[in-house]
Design goal:
Layout (H helix, E strand, L loop, with lengths): L6 H15 L9 H11 L4 H6 L4 H16 L2 H13 L10 H12 L7 H24 L3 H32 L1
Helix pairs in contact: 1-7, 2-7, 4-5, 4-8, 5-7, 5-8
């Protein structure tokens, strides 16, 4: 449970959450609003975005992440959430964001300005993963705490796989 983490850890988490939910100086917006603007560019109304329900497999993944956040030791829970940002970090996973943006623009009939969330969120995810790395280096000093980090990351990546498999299956049905 992250609520039991030390104060220095809470400060890093609060900074992270402030950028996610209030204002990220990299893009002048919170990340939810960026994603909502992308959905509107795809043709949804703001009301449809606000009232959207997750697909069942995605909902299961969200419940899994909530379970870890609420029931596991804070270091394990932090690892489970942090790995999601590290998993899209271009210094870890080789990606060509320019090609991704071009493909989204072409495939979905969008303009590049409609996809600012891709680059803004990618840059933020890399910075956020780096923020958490210092915590892991400071607090994961025993075999037990290191095992917590790996367990949290592994379980979270399992849910990430479920989440994306659900999205991919749904997209395939639409084509």
């Amino acid at each position: 449970m992250q609520c039991s983490s030390p104060l220095d850890v809470k400060r890093v988490i609060w900074k992270h959450e402030s950028e996610e939910l209030i204002n990220d100086p990299r893009c002048g917006s919170d990340h939810y609003s960026l994603h909502a603007r992308r959905c509107v560019a795809l043709g949804l109304t703001a009301e449809e975005v606000e009232n959207a329900q997750p697909l069942p497999g995605c909902r299961a993944a969200f419940y899994g992440w909530l379970h870890i956040a609420r029931s596991k030791p804070w270091l394990e829970a932090l690892s489970a959430s942090s790995i999601l940002e590290r998993s899209v970090d271009r210094s870890v996973v080789r990606r060509d964001v320019r090609t991704e943006i071009t493909q989204w623009v072409r495939d979905l009939g969008l303009e590049e300005k409609d996809l600012e969330v891709l680059t803004a969120n990618d840059n933020a995810d890399e910075d956020h993963a780096d923020m958490m790395e210092g915590i892991f280096l400071k607090y994961a000093t025993t075999p037990e705490t290191k095992a917590m980090i790996f367990r949290g990351a592994r379980e979270s990546l399992d849910m990430f796989k479920t989440f994306y498999n659900t999205l991919n299956q749904t997209i395939a049905k639409l084509q």
